[in-house]
Amino acid sequence: MKTRRRFLGALVASAMAIGLLPARAVLGADPETYNVWIGGKQVTSENMDDVLGSGSGSVKYDPATSTLTLDEPAFSKSTHESGAQIYAEGVNLTIRGTAGIEEGDDCAICIKGGNLTVETEDLKATGNDTAIFAEKDITFNGNVYLQSKIGTDLISVPNGKIEISDDFKIWQPKEGKLDDAKKKILDKDGLPTYYAMIVPKKVNVTWKAGAGNGTDIVENADFGSDVYYKKFPSDWTEPEGMHFDGWYYAEENHYEYCAGGWVEGLLKFGAYGDATMTARYKYWITGWEDTGDNGVYMPFGCIAQERGILKEGGDVHFDAGEHLPIEICLQKGFVLKDNKVEIVSAKSGEVLATVSVIGHDYEKYTCFYTECDMPDEDVTLRFATKNQSGVTVKYEVTDGAGGSWDPESGEDFKLTVHRDPDDENCIYYFESVTLDGTELVKDVDYTAEAGSTKITVKASALASLADGSHDISVNFTDGKAPVTFSVGKKTAGSTTPGTTPGNTSTTPGNPATTPDSGKTQPVDNSTTNSVNNTGSGAANTSPAPVNTPDTNTTTDGSNNAVNNTPVKNNGTVEKKKNTTTGKIAKTGDTGRTLIPLALVFLAISGGAVVILLVRNRRPKNEYDKLKHIVKRV
């Protein structure tokens, strides 16, 4: 009896549960459908998470928001009966994601009786006639490239308009714009265009420290502008034992070289979308060391970055375990001792590996080549060269040796250094310049250029030097060229005695010849004999020759060219009218000059008397002139 009651209770419960199910489930009805088609396939409640059934979920539809999300789907050739790859009816559709939609029979996207909002990361839509048709409004708020193959009806909005959000702009065609009715995209000439690219006005470029340590740097740039690679930020730190070596495009794992980080902005890329640049790090070959006879041939090998060897000033970067090619070129007649190169830890000095080399002879040099794997730390290369030919290298300063430099000139100091042998490659052996033992900074304190080796030390590097002798050394990999030069401030206008007008010369006590006896008389050395010249200038304390008043000759009979100034036997001078300048000049013995002066005066006076006697015979104007002369005398 109890069993019977239990069975009836279970039967009633089952009937009630079935009654609660939807009629479609009970009857096996079709799933719910939506008025959205992808190709020729309608979206349903069953396929909305993978509309194309590819298993990748490349097309998804959310009926609650009417949003279609695309993830690079592979569209088939089949289309909706409207001829569109994406078709919606009576739906305000939003499209997101990334896709390339090739043409349908008519258009790529068609929306009837509804609006369309495009928020894609990247959408390419190509229509045979129309790229996008929307009966109402179309709003672009994402990256879009549109193309019409056979017409210019690129976008059709019969009952609506085209809107572009404030964060986006028409990039192509150049200077493209919407017409006044906002129904078409026009080119710069105002004509409808068959293609258009709508892009964000701004993009973000993010710089990340990667394996290093540092805070991300976000740079906002105009779409399509040049973004220059950055120098490694000073507040970032590199991984232990490694060094910054450039940047990766993180999204593609694509490496973009940044000149080792020491040249900022040397390279650039176009900012056509958001990008992330991640720092890259490597180990270094920090240089090489020749412990032998300095036979390295600098134009090759030791400055060729591809070959893995650089001297100071430029390091070569490698990943640990990376294949490391090494090429060392030596001058003709030099070889590598034992044909070995040591790979040395730059930190500890420990020899990590020793590799053999193979040599090849050329006209001017011998090249030695080897290869190995890069250790997981910085290294230097150590080897020894040996001179088998007995060649002696000599450096000689051929221009500028023993020179002088005037601080007031403002000019640079120039040197030329010749190399014997191989002068034509002299510049490749050049290393540095030192001034009084202190190394100068290239391209700041001095420049170096080929032509033997031409060194120009800038005036700014010499300005602080004291007067006197100083030493410059031009240093090469296999020798040096020392130079001693003097620094001294010249007095303005100074010259050698009696050569430049306008200077005053001081004559020490030299013997002078008197006009009457011709005998040499001593001159008092305590008295200064000043000679007035016709120019201008500062006093010159150089000795000046002494002239006699009568014969203008010295005791040896030579002509004295200094202003014919007589000197008294006691060394004093007499003031005399200079017939050239009208200035008072110092002359010799005043007593000896009174007699000729008196004779001149009497002659002038006698002439005046004669003029007075005959004045009535002369015209008045001539009389006035003579009267003026007599009065002045």
Explain this structure.
With 633 residues, this protein is mainly beta. It has six helices and 49 strands. Strands 3, 4, 6, 8, 10, 11, 13, 14 and 17 form a nine-stranded mixed β-sheet that branches. Strands 18, 19, 21, 22, 24, 25, 28, 29 and 32 form a nine-stranded mixed β-sheet that branches. It is elongated, with a radius of gyration of 50 Å.
Low-confidence runs of at least 5 consecutive residues: 22-26, 491-593, 606-633
Largest sheet: 9 strands, mixed
- Specify the number of helices: 6
What class would the helix/strand composition place it in? mainly beta
Cα gyration radius (Å): 50 Å
What is the percent of helical residues? Answer: 10-25%
Key terms for this structure?
mainly beta, disordered C terminus, nine-stranded mixed sheet, single chain, 633 residues
Summarize the structure.
With 633 residues, the protein is mainly β.
Indicate the topology:
Layout: H1 2-20, H2 23-27, E1 33-38, E2 41-44, E3 59-62, E4 67-71, E5 84-89, E6 93-101, E7 107-112, E8 116-127, E9 130-134, E10 138-140, E11 144-148, E12 155-156, E13 162-164, E14 168-172, E15 177-178, E16 185-186, E17 195-200, E18 202-208, E19 217-222, E20 225-228, E21 243-249, E22 254-257, E23 268-271, E24 275-290, E25 316-318, E26 323-331, E27 334-336, E28 340-345, E29 351-356, E30 358-361, E31 365-373, E32 379-383, E33 385-387, E34 394-399, E35 404-405, E36 413-420, H3 426-429, E37 430-435, E38 438-439, E39 446-450, E40 453-457, H4 459-462, E41 468-476, E42 479-487, E43 504-507, E44 512-513, E45 520-521, E46 529-530, E47 539-540, E48 574-577, E49 584-587, H5 590-613, H6 620-632
Parallel strand pairs: 4-6, 5-7, 6-8, 7-9, 8-10, 8-11, 9-12, 10-13, 18-24, 24-32, 35-42, 43-47
Antiparallel strand pairs: 1-2, 1-5, 3-4, 11-17, 14-17, 15-16, 18-19, 20-23, 21-22, 21-24, 24-25, 26-31, 27-33, 28-29, 28-32, 30-31, 34-36, 36-40, 37-38, 37-41, 39-40, 41-42, 43-46, 44-45, 48-49
